[in-house]
Amino acid sequence: MDYKLEVDLHTHTLASDHAYSTIHDYVREAPKRGIRLFANTDHGPDMEDAPHKWHFVNSLTFPRMADGVGILRGIESNIKDLDGNIDIEESIRSSLDIILTGFHPPVFAPRDIDANTEAMANAIKSGKVHVVTHPGNTNFPIHIEHIVKLAAQENVALEINNSSFLFSRKKSYANCQRIAQLAKQYDAPITVGSDAHNAWDLGRFDIAKAMITEVGYPADRVVNNTVDSLFAYLATKGIDIADEFEF
Ligand SMILES: [Zn+2]
Ligand SMILES: [Zn+2]
């Protein structure tokens, strides 16, 4: 199977102040970029410029399809502590389709490699997280092999974040390459995310795609490779929503 990457699970709208586009902007750009389905995943409430929690609760009002493009209700939550707790209460969780989580310095300041690993591992083991965002971030060193093995065991996807190579976490490439190699070795699921902060970056996977191609990571294990693979993954988490969409 070839890489199709027709789903983007990681986008921010201007509900997060440091992002610049609306849901409409993303819908308009999606067909031009080969994206059939995308998740709106603004930052969880504990981030400094995150939207209020009602932003997430009320995302229930999004249409499932707009102009032929599917929209998922999501969040990029924050790992808060060593126990792997995230900044989502039940009212938010029950409104959403997909829950990403990751380290962001304003919420969890980088610690040593053992502490970072413990926090991320506990988030993975919590059963409350579907994707760990930018685990290759060199500002938050982790024991990569331990995390990849755990991700395989718990069936939680690790993200290869294309934006990391372009903007904020440029030194992440080597870590991400190792994550992709080990994920192939241990059969851990991955996602490829644009982490778009404006609609022109929707579906921008160029560097991440080249990397997983080089590594030989199997396309059918990339959670967001197709609409069907994404829905199949969510179904393993008890989120059975495929029938609500009409492509
Ligand atoms: Zn992030
Ligand atoms: Zn993000």
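^ zinc ion complex. The beta strands are 7-11, 37-40, 65-66, 69-78, 98-102, 131-132, 157-161, 190-193. Residues 76, 102, 104, 133-134 surround zinc ion (ligand 1) (CB under 6 Å).
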